[in-house]
Each structure stands twice: as C-alpha cells, then as structure tokens.
Amino acid sequence: MGSSHWIRRMGATGPGDIRMVCFPHAGGSSTFFAGLARALAPDVEVLGVQYPGRQDRHREQPVEDIPRMAEAVHEELGALLSDGRPCAFFGHSMGALVAFEAALLLRGGQPSKDLTRLFVSGRAAPLAGPRPGDLLSGDKELLTELHRLGGVGKDVLGDPELVSMIMPAVRADYRALATYGMTPGAALDCPVTVLTGEADPIVSPEEAAQWQGLTSAATEMRVFPGGHFYLQDQVQQVAAAVRESLLAS
C-alpha cells in the first residue's frame, strides 16, 4: 500500500488473503482495532481508517459529516482494491454508518463485487435516524456519555489537557451523528454481519437486527458478552467470528 491520508496499515498484520478496512467509533482512532488486527494476523490484513482531528492527524480540522468521511475513504480505496484481493469493511458504532456509506459508494450502482462483506458493530440500523444520545452537544454531556459507554476512562476525565485534546474530534463526530440521515431506499448487495454486545445500553438486538433490511444478500447476527465496547474484552472471540464469516463469503 502506498501513501494514504485516511487509511493506516495496522502494524501487526501481514499481507493476508483478504483485507479488512476498519472504521472507528465517535472520538475513536484507527488504533482501536490494534488488538483485532493482531488476532486476525496473518490471514487477514487489517487497515484502520484514521479520521482527521486525532493522533497523527490532530492538527487537522475534524469532519462533521458522515457521507463526507465516507467519500474521503472511498477516494483512497481505488489503489487498495486494484490488486483484486477480496476486501471487507468493519465499522464500530459511528464507524458502522461511515462503513455503510463507503460501501454504498463502492457499489456505485453496480454489484459490489469488490466488497466481500460488511461488518456492522454496536450500532442500530440507520432506519430511524439519530438516536437520543447522538443529539448531545455540551462537553460535559458528551464526556459523561462516552464514560458511560466505556469509551473514556476516569484517567482521561481527570486530565484537563487530555480532555482538551480529544474534545474537538468528539464534538465533530457527534455533530456528524446528529445530522446524518440515510438516503431513502439505499441498500447493498453484499452479505452483512451484525455484531453487538448483549448489554449494550444504546442498541438492542432487535434494533441491530434491522440491518437485514439494508442488503439484498444474507444477514447474520453475532451477540457477545459485554456492553458497547464489548470488542475490548472479546477480541479473540470477535476475531474468530470475523474469520468464520469471511471464509463463508
């Protein structure tokens, strides 16, 4: 892979027979998927999307629009897909919406032969628009919500410098969530795997299952112990499920 602005090769991965592009949650970065990348190596090459406004892109202005994020990633995918190797997308929480929009762009009105499977994690299907938690705006509210979900620890909350570093990206991501609306009738033709934590406070299994209405292909659902960030404690189990689904594609 050549130089890329939005996409990072995770250090633990090898070339793999298949690649998987991972889209992080609101306030998150590509390194959220480092454990999953290690667990899937060397069979799957994991690439992480790095949104602007965080880590090595912290000096850049965050993007406050989910379709624009998807368009930026899509623009860089041409070179990645040129070798003909199968590719899957994996999006967690907000990243599930960005991955869905990027998959629609990749489809481009034609059968999405370049996309083997879409994994959507920790997010209700976007049929009903923003959820109440997407509409938070005050910094204190946002930090409280992220802490409740398990995305921000007490060590971060107690460090004003760290808080000031992460808040521009967090604000932008929540503005993107609050204004996102799926194009009516939008649908894919690739298989979809829905992953969720059994105790996730923001998405029920019933809401997660509604993703099946957004593809003409098969949909499967995997439920894991844990809450919204179940992936942090269930890396090996998730990796096994991902590998099994990819082999079935």
From TrEMBL:
InterPro entries noted in UniProt: AB_hydrolase_fold, TEII, Thioesterase
Residue runs in coiled coils: none
Domain Thioesterase, chain residue ranges per copy: 20-244
Family that this chain belongs to: Belongs to the thioesterase family.
Protein name (Swiss-Prot/TrEMBL): Thioesterase II family protein
UniProt organism field: Streptomyces longisporoflavus
